[in-house]
Design brief:
- Strands 1-2-3-6-5-4 form a six-stranded antiparallel β-barrel.
- Helix 3 crosses helix 4 (118-127) and helix 3 crosses helix 5 (136-143).
- It is of the alpha+beta class.
- It contains five helices and six strands.
Amino acid sequence: MSKQQPTGLTWRLMRRMSTRVIRLVAAGRGPAKVVLVLTTTGRKSGLPRQTPLQYEQVGDDYYIASARGPQADWFRNLQVDPHVEVLLQGRRFAAQAQAVTDPMRIADFLALRLERHPLMVGLIMRLEGFPLRYTRNDLEKFAAGKALAVLHPLPQVE
């Protein structure tokens, strides 16, 4: 299975759309049921950095994955400072981020995403070279080089 990396044009288009998506999520509209906005602290600048990301809620935690793997800026930022802010369906909360690069855990996450959103996630993964009919081994191979973060919401201070 060949892994295709999105082109520079793809990433530029995604960045351009990010601002619009952030505004929609902040207003509690748009793709708010599948997208959250993660605010990390820039590892070099120290400034807040917002990134819209697809998520899955598992229990009280939120899982987000990086198609770009551990080199994604938001992932590198939370490795330096795991204290993050999450904007989800118009509400904000603080969370502790746990970085995950284990292909087995990422494969488990991908299996969950495929179960919950077979068309959307299946299409996204196929665009990266994932086969239509796949095995657990295919999921683990696909997960290699990807990254995942588990966001553990912190108790609200009243």
